[in-house]
Input
Amino acid sequence: MEYNFRAIEKKWQKQWEDSHIYHVSNDSPKPKCYVLDMFPYPSGAGLHVGHPLGYIATDIYARYKRLKGFNVLHTMGYDAFGLPTEQYALETGQHPVVTTEQNINAFRQQLNNIGFCYDWSREVNTSDPSYYKWTQWIFLQLFESWYDRNLQKALPIKTLEGVFEQEGNKNHVCPGDRSIQFTAEEWKQYDEVTRRDILMQYRLAYLAYAEVNWCEALGTVLANDEVINGVSERGGYPVVKKKMRQWFLRITEYANRLLEGLETVNFSDAMKEMQRNWIGKSQGAEIKFNLKNNDGQIEVYTTRPDTIFGVDFMVLAPEHELVSSITTPEQKEAVEKYLDYVQSRSERERMAEVKQITGCFTGAYAINPFNGREIPVWIAEYVLAGYGTGAIMAVPCGDQRDFGFARHFNIPITNIIGDAFNGTEANPTKDAKLQNSGFLDGMEMRPAMDVVINKLEEMGIGRRQINYKMRDAGFSRQRYWGEPFPIVYRNGVPYAMDEKDLPVELPYVENYKPGPDGEGPLANITDWVNIAPDVKRETNTMPGYAGSSWYFLRYMDPHNKNTFADRKATDYWNQVDVYVGGTEHAVGHLLYSRLWTKVLYDLGYLGFDEPFKSLINQGMIGGSSRLVYRIHGTNQYVSHGLKDQYQTDALHVDVNIVDGVELDIEALKKWKPEFADATFILEDGKYICGVQLEKMSKRLFNTVNPNDLVNKYGADTFRMYEMFLGPVEQSKPWDTKGIEGVHRFLKKLWRLFADEQKGIIVNEQAPTPEELKILHKTIQKIDHDTNNFSFNTAVSSFMICVNELASLNCHKRAILEPLLVLLTPYAPHLCEELWQYLGHNESILNAIYPVYEEKYTAETAFTYPIAINGKTRTEMSFDLNLATEEIEKAVLANPVVEKWMEGKSLKRMIIIKGKMINVVI
RNA sequence: GCGGGUGUGGUGAAAUUGGUAGACACGCUAGACUUAGGAUCUAGUGCUUCGCGGCAUGGGGGUUCGAGUCCCUCCACCCGCACCA
Output
């Protein structure tokens, strides 16, 4: 009876499906546990071995929690809207609905092949109208809400209208435009259009103008991904900025709560740090500077008001609205030329550029309010319009970028920190004494900040201000394959559609070409757009993160037709207990999900305001490419070790036709016609490939399909091998070669239970203390490691256990049965099979997790390493209860110690019970 | 540029969190069984040295009886940066 994994795995996968054993109820007396994976985008390329890493980890954890007596929610779905599918449609004419369905089916097949315990009855697909109906519904909640800064929560917009009628907006600064102020009387006199304009400035989902990447030649707006070095990826056409009216989510209103919420969740410090940096809270001041010979004012935001006497120039973002009005005639030409240059630069390039300093003087001067000094006003690309006020006061002695700028353009530098500034680089210290600083002279910088702000407020030209680097989230895409907005425009004024008319289904189109003026493809469907003579639909669609911002809630109640998820269900499942996914979502997806949850909480639809109680970041699995070396100008290939004797070109070959580094030459010849007649120069009769670590990508022929490995070694081996590779959090390259070690382990385990000739060989003998010790050491380790997502060390513990039991020839039920339960989360198919052979009728999934008992592992003696001056020289075994003096005596009498001590005297001896002994001489 | 992460044998890694560096595997070497071996088993395998020993956790410095682990500093690589998902 041998380990026939193919038959076993098929058998149990069918059994599980037929018995609905993974079906989860929302009604259970057991404690709940919600284990979530970041759901995948169902790309046409299918899953490669990098994807399941996190899925296997959560699957093991989910099964473990189930065995520990929890009601576990473990689900899978698809984040199915997205650019690649639309791009594919554009190229092939295949409708995204069709390709999405095909891709999803392929993904599901691959996932099932690995034996996951998902409750498939809860599967979601964000591109399904029954799902995106609720995405649209939540959008409407955002549209119909505003954020009350006094209460620090979202409220229905109707409440705001009530407030305006009572008292105008004097107690509620307009977040969209601070300058908007009106009384109750004025509000009452405004017409509908004006009122709705004002309300728009308060809504959590709102319309505003923002720049997009516009490609005239393609007639379309491009994603950042599609722009490379200022030209389109497709075709290489020029790309410029274009202002368009777009939807935004007012996430900035939640900046502080998103920041504070981090204190209540269990994310890694690195992850929290990334989110904090993204939110970018800073305290400082807004200061208005008057201009020389101009009525305008420049408003800057600075975190260092204490350095105001060190301001040697001002920098405006090139897009700043004042630029055109302050530029002097002499500088006009230079400024316009510079603006043209900036137009072609991406935001990333603008921030990252360090070697090349660019900028242009506007000819204007600002006036320092404290000493009347004239400060030249420049524009430069390193100042971005969206940050702060889009203008900075530059203090070259304190800021390195300002310093570089001043040096480059020969702007004189004022030193306000005395010796702390060495003249060759800026010093951003906050602990120097101020000099050359008028009334601040002699003051420490930190207290000076408050002094300056108070003075500015007194003078009415500045104020204390908390700023966030985070910007409101763009929520429009000029694309087809996304959720349509439930919005109609009546005479150009946007209105929410009625809830009963949801979902607004994505209309069927024949082609996916962009609409006029940068609008999305939906703009081309005039009979869909034009509902009535002056009533038009919104033609933008929602971005990729819309559907993924709340999918974890839909899993709780996936078939509900009346609401996104019943409050009873969300109260029961509550927060996601463990969420596993890649760091690449550190800021985007996680912040949006946290935002949506908070809004739904504020509006009373949820009972919790942080979606994810704890988060684990899985590392990326890198590709390990294989290279062959073609001798230049020939079709002859030379093995890696000999390649330096020739002039060669390295070519990527499919990793699946290479065993480790040894090329399967026949397979290569069949792989591509160009290799059919190839000849080879071998070393030791083999062709050895070169190895290169890089991204796992189809293009580099280094992707490995889990299906191939499952077919060759079985799902249980595959699962355990992925875990054996290393810590889940760590990135590592994929190497198929090592999988055989894990496969051998499972076969060895199998042989503890069954013999090829004799069949099942498990006996009923009583276990020895030694066997019990092995078992209980393993229980302790596996329980601990599984609970802590330390699956790699758990797998090696299983190996050690099986190695030890095999060498003891142990085939005892009392030992093997608990071991099988321990292993079930890792190798569910094999365990089910052996469990059945052991005579159980009930699935092992419902077994009881073994309990560690200390009495079996207690030690009475310990073998100490004996170190002389910290270097281990020998070992000695002592009873753990032996007195320190006795140990000391025995150590000094040890011949090895005596030898090392020769001629030297003992300084001290360090004895750590149960750890080590160090003799210091 | 900003932010985050990672550096330990030929390879993936482990190290009870300051206490025997390299567990467990892959690979490699030798052997046993075998018609066969890409099955199984046994032994060996960080570098260096005949050996005693010496040297080793990216480089340099420090704290300590003791450092992969703590501190300072430098370097290399990977990921993210707001329209890829």
Remarks:
- The first strand of chain A starts at residue 32 and ends at 37.
- The first helix of chain A runs from residue 5 to 19.
- Chain A has a mean pLDDT of 90.
